[in-house]
Specification:
The complex is a heterodimer.
Chain A: H1 3-34, H2 40-49, E1 57-58, H3 59-83, H4 98-109, H5 119-122, H6 125-155, E2 161-163, H7 165-190, E3 200-204, E4 210-214, H8 218-227, H9 248-272, H10 276-302, H11 307-312, H12 324-337, H13 352-363, H14 374-393, E5 399-400, E6 403-404, H15 407-433, H16 435-438, H17 445-460, H18 475-504, H19 521-551
Antiparallel strand pairs in A: 1-2, 3-4, 5-6
Chain B: H1 26-38, H2 42-45, H3 49-67, H4 71-108, E1 113-117, E2 126-130, E3 139-143, E4 152-156, E5 158-162, H5 164-167, E6 173-176, E7 183-184, E8 189-190, E9 194-199, H6 207-216, H7 224-245, H8 247-254, H9 260-270, H10 273-292, E10 295-297, H11 300-308, E11 311-315, E12 321-332, H12 338-349, H13 355-368, E13 382-384, E14 392-397, E15 400-406, H14 407-416, H15 423-434, E16 438-446, E17 452-463, H16 467-476, E18 480-484, H17 489-499, E19 503-505, H18 510-522, E20 527-531, H19 537-542, E21 545-549, H20 554-559, E22 562-564, H21 571-609, H22 627-651, H23 660-690
Parallel strand pairs in B: 11-18, 11-20, 18-19, 20-21, 21-22
Antiparallel strand pairs in B: 1-2, 1-3, 3-9, 4-7, 4-9, 5-6, 5-8, 10-22, 12-17, 13-14, 14-15, 15-16, 16-17
Helix pairs in contact in B: 1-4, 3-4, 3-9, 4-6, 4-10, 4-22, 7-9, 9-21, 9-22, 10-21, 10-22, 11-21, 12-13, 21-22, 21-23, 22-23
The chains are: A mainly alpha, B alpha+beta.
């Protein structure tokens, strides 16, 4: 079977599997976010930390809870990393420098999982399990909690309450992420992903050299790495490493896992707002971008120019032989569109346009389908902008799902769409203006520029994948990218929650024939256009100097 | 409803102060130029963030051009200044049209002398004071030929008043004390008789003062929707500002650092200048369009709310039906010839000057060929006029008594005089009532004989022509219409069905109206209504859009947020359309503005970087002549498109009532797709010209 045909079949199977999960998973998440019932274990947890599980929070309190929880997470993780040499299971790893520990702590708390370290050379099992894996769970849950609050803004009327963060967080981890992770970790183990507590095995190879083979609890981390759109690999090679991603099937499964929750959340949205068609419209926009991106990357990577590429069946540099061009392209598109950032191939080696698309995918703001929760709230913010412009064009004060979009709502939506581009462009601009930092680039010319642009785009959008090619473990990059990740994660959350509060206070406007329908193909097209134009226009000059300049001869 | 009072043969040629509908007078552009330049004051410009950025950019390029002069630098500088001026011009033109109206209005405010009554009603002693010296609660007397010195209510007398100064209607209107026709406006002229007016406004706050402030735009505040749009535009401006500022280090790395001129040009090309420049003109023009339809909106907020209205409360009489009922049919009692009934009906109605009475005569003539008898033929007849007590009218002639009136009253008259009313008559009466009509029973008493009932006249409300289609349109726009009437539910339902309204409120009291508005609003709906009486005032105030009739009382006018000078309640529908058109114009130009950026990128980015990255030449899909000509063309296009769209901003985009989906599809097609394509053509066309300018090639 040719690699292209295999790619097609994999993609089709993926679409089928995601479509199958859309309704049950989306409905299940909607139910766990809305039910009044607590599990016994949850009640115990609430008692333990002193939370009233039945009390709802106003949006500022919800926000404070999110920020406090995240700040504590960063501190804890930072402490754990810095102190690991004194703790169990450190495998004799050296102490990590403060700037790198800060970068790593922020990275995992913000669901970015940018790694300026190399897993097998920097972190022991304790940090991997008690630090990183825990954040893989809770940072994913925080994203879903935020979007839950935003959806409640639409569904609730004349109230200042948007839900209870602690309850949302607990339920998402206990009822959604943990059970799915356990099941799929077993599937991964069954397919060859390792799961043990070994350190390094020194082996002698046939050629007489010695080789150091690492072990570790990989499968348990691998599953939540994808499922929670985290992307931080146990090993430096991430999903290209045979212990993380041994076969074509595990590769397919990992792509499925990193997409499944984000693609099901629109159903949760439709379910909660009481109109499933709204969910279909949103998921349609997400799917359009995902399909188009995957198809385009595959196309650019499979273009045969040059004898070597023809012989290999495409641009095979930086790609794993066991996955091939199509599966690698599909993985690349999915991982950059979901804020996952796991990689099974080396994006720096992609063709100019293929690599450029991975940057563009992230620039879209991680919304198609985006990170767990963050993808949907990002898309809903853009939907609000689209509804605003389109609503004017039908001659009414724009309203989305019965909530009017006035000055206050537009303020928060505008601030949201302003935040990430500002971080990306200023970060890249400053890096390019500092000769020392630019020197960290592996390549010169537009490709070198793309490496820097990729780094800041990945950090600010909380993707975490790297084009690689630049030396990022420097105090400047660690600090700057850490800040980019933190601002790129938490500022938008502030605006989303403020928006949720503002929407929840409103009285709904009943729909009529004069109301802009937000579930029809026309709106899907419009929203896609807004996504493309609002994002594309902002980044076009930067892209022109990077991948476009490189790709056009 | 007092529509009958203002039979309005609108003759615009005699009302010179009205600006004709929506067209742009080129002279006005020239006249507004000085104002446009004056608005360059940064303190004024800063209120419009988008255009303020352009102005700052113009200053920067001016400095650069002086420091390092070149044809290109000056070309960009000049066109950037023109962009700013064009934006100001749009606003100035919109305001200028209002100013012209304000000036004519001011002329009516000439110093009038008021005859203030010192101790009315105790004495008629009066003193002459300046009109401006009048205070709230003063009483003034005005006689034929005099100008009413201030707004107020007539408390004594009745007079015909020429209100053409404010309404543009030359036909005089009747103003009388008591009732709903008591309000008079300062600056209007009493044509006949003498009235005493109680002044109801402080000096400087009269209706005309407010009107002047409104049309001049002095009282203009940004509307909620305008604020929201401004926020979006400001954030887009900031994003592009950052995109361009951070571009310089990237460009420097690429080996192509850009000049200040080019960077500023890129910023201006990208930020949404088109909508930024026209936004306030659109708002002013929206108010202006209302004024041209003789509606005064007290705030822009009200105009916007009109576009959002979900529910229209329409008074039946005058709005949905013609002011009066008309005879539709004669239904004889059993044993009576229809001709006999028609004859008696006609006879009893000859002296009846009410529209109902006349319609009976007309029906008798058209259907039964009965010639209207001249008054002279019946010189000896005694006319019995209608009174509220008897509730019937008629005539005594040649020993014969004919009566017509309400079923109950006439039946009583018949039985009191020894006659009897047959069951068939009761059936006829009920049948007409059930059909929503008003039955008038006709009876006759010939000499000493017992009176007998001849039959029943079916009086019917006549639904205005085209109303059904109008309501159909409204339904398509998602607006529910509710008919308000004092009729009983049966009658109301019949008319509601005939007119095609969605719902009705029968036997409506002001309290019912208020409750209905509250109920709709609690469901999140916006309600619009018209009203003229003092008892309408609370409902007018409660409604989101309350249109008071100019003929109405001062209280009603104060309570509403719009006043219709023509006192035409049907105009509410037009007001809604104008509100929608205002929002659509904003949305359409925003879409157009943003879509334009695509073409501008394709013009400017290759111009900036094709030198270092030759591959980027492929992005020059328009085949623009040179980097300088490309950038200049984009900037020139950007400036010209503002001028080109001023007429559209002032006139508003075309609005055809239809549902949201088709409106959206249409506007995205025209302004979205159009906005993508037009600049490609425009920039290319400009490039074909500017490439011949030495220094740009």
């Amino acid at each position: 079977m040719s690699s292209t045909l295999a790619g097609w079949l994999q993609a089709l199977a993926l679409v089928g599997a995601l479509a199958l999960c859309y309704r049950p998973l989306g409905d299940y998440i909607a139910k766990l976010l809305t039910t009044a019932k607590h599990l016994r274990v949850e009640r115990g947890l609430y008692k333990l930390v002193g939370v009233d599980g039945d009390a709802d929070q106003r949006w500022p309190v919800y926000l404070r809870s999110v920020l406090a929880f995240s700040a504590l997470s960063i501190l804890f993780l930072y402490g754990l990393i810095r102190l690991q040499t004194h703790l169990l299971l450190s495998l004799g790893m050296p102490e990590m420098a403060p700037h790198q520990a800060w970068n790593t702590a922020v990275s995992f708390t913000t669901n970015t999982n940018w790694q300026s370290y190399s897993g097998e050379a920097a972190l022991g099992h304790l940090v991997q399990m008690a630090g990183l894996a825990v954040q893989n769970f809770v940072s994913a849950a925080v994203g879903i909690a935020i979007v839950a609050a935003l959806i409640r803004g639409f569904t609730r009327n004349r109230t200042d309450r948007v839900g209870n963060f602690w309850v949302d967080l607990t339920r998402i981890v206990l009822r959604l992420l943990l059970p799915l992770s356990i099941v799929f970790a077993l599937v991964l183990v069954a397919n060859g992903v390792i799961q043990n507590f070994h350190g390094f095995h020194e082996l002698s190879t046939l050629a007489g050299d010695t080789q150091s083979i690492p072990g570790g609890p990989v499968a348990s981390q691998e599953v939540i790495k994808e499922l929670g759109t985290n992307g931080g690999g146990f090993f430096n090679a991430n999903s290209a490493h045979p212990f993380e991603n041994p076969t074509g099937f595990t590769n397919w499964l990992e792509i499925f896992l990193l997409l499944v929750i984000s693609f099901a959340l629109p159903r949760t949205f439709g379910r909660m707002v009481g109109d499933n068609r709204q969910g279909y419209a949103i998921v349609a926009v997400m799917a359009i971008f995902w399909v188009a991106s995957a198809a385009l990357i595959t196309f650019f990577e499979a273009q045969h120019s040059g004898t070597a590429l023809q012989a290999a069946g495409g641009a095979m540099e930086g790609k794993e032989q066991r996955f091939g061009v199509a599966a690698s392209s599909l993985f690349a598109a999915s991982t950059t569109l979901t804020s996952t950032g796991a990689v099974d191939s080396f994006h720096d080696s992609f063709s100019a346009f293929g690599g450029g698309l991975t940057i563009f995918n992230m620039m879209l703001g991680e919304i198609a389908p985006g990170g767990t929760g963050s993808g949907l709230y990002g898309m809903l913010i853009l939907a609000i902008v689209a509804v605003f412009v389109a609503g004017l064009m039908v001659g009414r004060t724009p309203e989305y799902l019965g909530k009017k979009l006035g000055g206050r709502e537009m303020k928060f939506a505008s601030l949201y769409i302003l935040t990430t581009p500002t971080i990306v462009l200023i970060g890249t601009g400053v890096a390019m203006a500092l000769p020392g930092e630019r020197a960290g680039m592996l390549n010169s010319g537009p490709h070198g520029f793309s490496e820097v642009l990729y780094a800041f785009t990945s950090a600010a959008n909380n993707n975490g994948s790297a084009f690689a090619g630049i030396t990022v473990n420097t105090p400047w990059y660690d600090t700057a990218l850490g800040l980019a990740m933190a601002f790129g994660r938490f500022l938008p959350m502030v605006f989303v929650l403020a928006l949720a509060g503002s929407l929840a206070q409103q009285q709904p406007v009943p729909a009529s024939a004069g109301t802009l329908p937000t579930h029809k193909p026309l709106f899907v097209g419009l929203l896609s256009g807004v996504v493309l134009i609002v994002v594309g226009l902002t980044y076009f000059p930067a892209l022109a100097l990077g991948p476009i300049a490189e790709g056009l001869h | 409803m007092s529509t009958t009072l203002t039979p309005a043969p609108v003759d615009h040629s005699t009302t010179p102060h009205r600006v004709s509908g929506g067209l742009l007078d080129p002279k006005l552009i020239v006249k507004s130029l000085p104002d446009a330049v004056k608005k360059l004051d940064p303190r004024v410009m800063v209120k419009n963030p988008v255009m303020f950025v352009v102005e700052v950019g113009s200053v920067v390029t001016t400095v650069s051009a002086i420091a390092d002069p070149s044809v290109f630098a000056w070309a960009i500088t000049v066109w950037l200044w023109l962009t700013t001026i064009f934006a100001n011009l749009a606003e100035a033109v919109a305001e200028g049209r209002g100013k012209a109206q304000a000036d004519t209005l001011r002329k009516t405010k000439t110093e009038s002398v008021a005859r203030r009554l010192l101790d009315w009603p105790a004495s008629q002693a009066e003193e002459e004071v300046a009109g401006t010296a009048l205070r709230l609660g003063d009483h003034v007397v005005v006689e034929a030929g005099q100008i009413i010195p201030g707004d107020g209510d007539v408390v004594e007398g009745v007079a015909s008043v020429d209100e053409s100064a404010i309404t543009g209607e030359s036909a005089p209107v009747i103003r009388e004390s008591g009732g709903d026709r008591s309000a008079v406006t300062g600056g209007t002229k009493v044509l006949s008789d003498r009235i005493v007016v109680k002044i109801a406004s402080e000096p400087g706050k009269s209706f005309i003062d407010r009107m002047i402030a409104l049309v001049e735009g002095a009282a203009r505040q940004k509307t909620p929707n305008e604020i929201a749009l401004n926020i979006l535009l400001a954030s887009l401006t900031i994003v592009f500002l950052i995109a361009v500022v951070t571009l310089q280090p990237m460009a420097t790395y690429a080996g192509a650092p850009q000049s200040m001129i080019v960077l500023v040009a890129l910023i201006v090309a990208l930020i949404p200048t088109t909508i930024g420049a026209l936004l306030s003109a659109i708002g002013i023009a929206g108010m202006d369009r209302l004024v041209q339809r003789n509606v005064l909106a007290m705030s822009g907020r009200a105009v916007e709310a009109a576009g959002d209205v979900n529910t229209l409360l329409l008074d039946k009489t005058g709005t949905i039906t013609l002011g009066n009922r008309q005879a539709a049919e004669f239904q004889p009692a059993s044993g009576v010839e229809i001709g006999e009934l028609a004859d008696a009906a006609q006879l009893s109605s000859l002296a009846d000057e009410t529209p109902e009475g006349r319609s009976i005569v007309v029906l008798a003539k058209t259907e039964y060929g009965l010639r209207a008898r001249a008054q002279g033929e019946l010189a000896h007849a005694t006319w019995v006029p209608f009174t509220a007590q008897t509730r019937m009218s008629g005539v005594d002639v040649d020993g014969k008594q004919v009566r017509k009136g309400a079923a109950g009253s006439v039946s009583n008259w018949v039985t009191e005089n020894g006659g009897s009313v047959g069951a068939d008559v009761a059936q006829l009466v009920d049948g007409i009532s059930a059909a929503g009509g008003t039955p008038l029973v006709v009876a006759e008493k010939d000499g000493g004989k017992a009176p007998r009932v001849l039959g029943v006249i079916h009086l019917k409300d006549v639904v205005k022509e085209g109303m059904r289609e109008r309501f159909e349109e409204l339904r398509r726009m998602g607006i529910k219409t509710i008919m308000i009437t004092g009729d009983n539910p049966l009658t109301a339902k019949a008319i509601a069905d005939e007119a095609g309204v969605d719902d009705f409120l029968a036997e409506a009291t002001p309290e019912d109206k208020m409750a209905l508005i509250r109920k709709e609003q609690e469901g999140g709906k916006l309600v619009a209504m018209t009203g003229d009486g003092t008892n309408d005032a609370p409902a007018l105030a409660q409604a989101d859009v309350g249109v008071a009739m100019n003929t109405g009382t001062m209280a009603a006018k104060e309570a509403g947020n719009m006043v219709d000078l023509d006192s035409n309640p049907t105009k509410l529908i037009e007001i809604v359309e104008i509100g929608k058109q205002l929002l659509i114009t904003r949305g359409a130009l925003t879409t157009f503005s943003i879509a334009n950026d695509v073409a501008k990128y394709f013009a400017i980015i290759p111009a900036m970087f094709a030198g270092v990255y030759p591959g980027l030449k492929h992005l020059n899909i328009m085949g623009l002549h040179s980097p300088q000509s490309a950038i200049t063309s984009a900037i020139v296009f950007n400036a010209l498109v503002i001028i080109g769209l001023i007429p559209l901003a002032l006139r508003g985009v075309k609005y055809r009532p239809s549902d949201a989906s088709s409106l959206l599809a249409r506007n995205i097609g025209i302004y979205g797709i159009g906005g993508l394509i037009v600049p490609f053509v425009g920039i290319k066309a400009i490039d074909l010209i500017v490439q011949f300018i030495p220094g740009l090639s």
